[in-house]
């Protein structure tokens, strides 16, 4: 059966199974767990997958689940990924099924991703005879601390069988319910950590001629850093450099020049070349400005998350997958937020969607990580359908290409 004709059957399952999707969502939302502590969530997912006849692949990890569904014949393997962790946030939303865990909440809506992928698992298991290949379900722990995907990649989660393409999604309170963002190329920025250390000679604040003042050098660095985006990065490209934390001196002491200043910040970009350029310029400015002020400057540039760069080769499949569910594809601006889905893109081409969850009438308007965050729960059927249709569309696309 052609992928497009599968759309009708998938939509039928979306309607029929919606009460089950919502039950999953409610349970998950009521039982949030923090990164790498998702034990009950893991047990819940395993049980649901086993009920659908999906085999659990054993990996040496305490939380998170990888399931494998074999279709009617050998063929491409498509991975579908959802993250499963909550946040240390006290829920203050008007949600009818709030968190039962004090101080913990699915404030980034990863419960909507998990419920959507469980829904897709049910739909795809019902349609397994129509799948000319296999599906890997990746329920990833610890997205919020940017470590879960790295861990799974170290465990070679995209092997056995080798994954040909991977799809993932994140809810978005920026776009309305009934829409899904399908964006070609960069969708979410790389996210790197920068640490500046400026070492000088401290001493009496009233006798500055005897000191090498790292605070003055650090102030000059802060100013100079602003020129990297405005003078070095192409105006057609974009990037962010923010210094968000400055540590120097003791308590409220006002008359002692400290020995050193340490500053922490973040860099966001959409291209590897831009990351490299920024690193080079920041290092040059830190070292040379510090030296000019009689200090020593050191930059630690830590590459944390890569760009979520949606594969052009999967764009058509992704677009058709969304259309087939009855949702409307939209093309918003990319986000400067980071997402560890980018780790999986080191192993396979991938595509990441944003699932619209905004609905003013239901107070679903708050941003990620807000204690008021909530999603219009109709998004689960659309998420499940989008995941499921991505499998059919991607396999068809891969097979057409190899013909
Ligand atoms: Ni998130």
Outline of this structure?
This protein folds into two domains: 3-187 and 307-399, Aminopeptidase; 190-305, Alpha-Beta Plaits (2-Layer Sandwich). It is built from nine helices and 16 strands.
Mean pLDDT: 96
Ligands, ions, cofactors: nickel (II) ion
The number of domains:
2
The percent range for helix content is 25-40%
What name is given to the CATH topology of the largest domain?
Aminopeptidase
Secondary-structure-based class equals: alpha/beta
Using the coordinates above, name the CATH class of the largest domain. Alpha Beta
Q: Whole-number radius of gyration?
A: 24 Å
Distance between the termini: 17 Å
Content of β-strand: 15-25%
User: Based on the structure given, which CATH architecture of the largest domain is correct?
Assistant: 3-Layer(aba) Sandwich
Reading side by side through the largest sheet, how are the strands ordered?
1-2-4-3-5-16-6-15
Describe the structure.
The strands form four sheets. The protein has an eight-stranded mixed beta sheet, with helices on both faces. It has a four-stranded antiparallel beta sheet with strand order 10-12-8-13, covered by helices on one side. The chain has 403 residues and is of the alpha/beta class. Strand 1 and strand 2 form a beta hairpin. It has nine helices and 16 strands. The chain has helices at residues 3-16, 18-30, 39-51, 110-126, 148-154, 214-232, 272-292, 315-324, 379-402; strands at 55-57, 65-70, 77-83, 134-140, 165-176, 179-181, 185-188, 190-199, 203-204, 239-247, 256-257, 260-269, 296-305, 308-310, 328-330, 350-358. Helix 1 packs antiparallel against helix 9 (379-402). It binds nickel (II) ion. Nickel (II) ion binds next to loops.
């Amino acid at each position: 059966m052609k992928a497009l004709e599968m759309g009708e059957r998938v939509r039928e399952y979306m309607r029929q199974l919606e009460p089950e999707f919502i039950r999953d969502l409610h349970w998950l939302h009521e039982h949030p767990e923090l990164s790498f502590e998702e034990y009950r969530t893991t047990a819940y997912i395993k049980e649901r997958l086993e009920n659908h006849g999906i085999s659990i692949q054993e990996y040496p990890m305490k939380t998170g689940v990888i399931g494998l569904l074999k279709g009617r014949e050998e063929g491409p393997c498509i991975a579908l990924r959802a993250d499963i962790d909550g946040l240390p946030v006290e829920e203050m939303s008007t949600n009818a099924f709030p968190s039962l865990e004090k101080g913990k909440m699915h404030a980034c809506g990863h419960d909507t991703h998990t419920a959507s992928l469980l829904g897709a698992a049910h739909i795809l298991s019902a349609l397994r005879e129509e799948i000319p290949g296999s599906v890997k379900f990746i329920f990833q722990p610890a997205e919020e601390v940017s470590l879960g995907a790295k861990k799974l990649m170290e465990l070679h989660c995209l092997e056995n069988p080798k994954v040909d393409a991977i799809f993932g999604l994140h809810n978005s309170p920026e776009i309305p319910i009934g829409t899904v963002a399908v964006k070609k190329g960069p969708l979410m920025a790389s996210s790197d950590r920068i640490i500046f250390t400026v070492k000088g000679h401290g001493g009496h604040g009233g006798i500055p001629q005897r000191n090498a003042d790292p605070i003055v050098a650090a102030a000059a660095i802060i100013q100079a850093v602003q020129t990297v985006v405005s003078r070095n990065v192409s105006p057609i490209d974009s990037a962010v450099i923010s210094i968000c934390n400055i540590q120097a001196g003791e308590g409220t002491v006002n008359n002692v020049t400290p020995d050193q200043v340490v500053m922490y910040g973040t860099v966001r970009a959409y291209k590897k070349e831009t990351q490299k350029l920024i690193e080079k310029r920041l290092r040059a400015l830190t070292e040379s400005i510090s030296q000019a002020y009689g200090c020593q400057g050191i930059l630690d540039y830590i590459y944390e998350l890569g760009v979520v760069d949606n594969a052009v080769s999967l764009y058509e499949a992704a677009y058709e997958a969304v259309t087939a569910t009855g949702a409307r594809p939209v093309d918003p601006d990319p986000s400067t937020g980071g997402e560890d889905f980018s780790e999986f893109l080191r192993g396979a081409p991938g595509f990441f969607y944003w699932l619209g969850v905004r609905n003013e009438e239901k107070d679903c308007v708050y941003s990620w990580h807000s204690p008021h965050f909530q999603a219009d729960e109709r998004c689960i059927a659309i998420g499940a359908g989008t995941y499921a249709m991505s499998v059919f569309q991607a396999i068809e696309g891969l097979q057409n290409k190899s013909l």
